[in-house]
Design goal:
By secondary structure, the protein is of the alpha+beta class. It has 2 domains: 1-26 and 123-166, no CATH class; 37-117, no CATH class. Helix content is 38%, strand content 19%.
Amino acid sequence: MNKQRIRKSRTEPTAVERMADKPFQITRNPYPPMNPLSVEQLGRIHNASMRIVEEIGIDFLDSEALDIWEKAGAKVDHASQHVWIDRHLLMETIGRAPHSFELRARNPERHLTIGENYINFCTVGGAPFYSDMERGRRPGELADYERMGQAGAHVRPHPHRRGVDD
């Protein structure tokens, strides 16, 4: 990085600073949920997914998650980090999850509700892969991450969260 660019980057406000003076707003969806699938189609998808978690299982690469599932009653193979979950156990667990929850900000006026009919905009926390018109899809680089952050500063409505910069 040359000295001119370093000097310029210190004197110009960052994307986050430019967003600070923009009005914060909560967005809600006024429309009822769409139902693109029939009840029968949803049932077929649900039964197929239950078969996967019961018969094929899922890899959990975190030992704490394996312990939690084992304590809950799922079949766990710690050596292969694999879990098979009974459909009744899974549905009971999902049934205990709240319909919505609040992400709390330092400024209480900027708390976000996740769920219900709230719409929250955010950018991703990194660029494992990046795609553009000039170079196509490729592994992400720091410069790509910086460009994504800059683009996020210009989104309308403004993002409620901006990846790891928050």
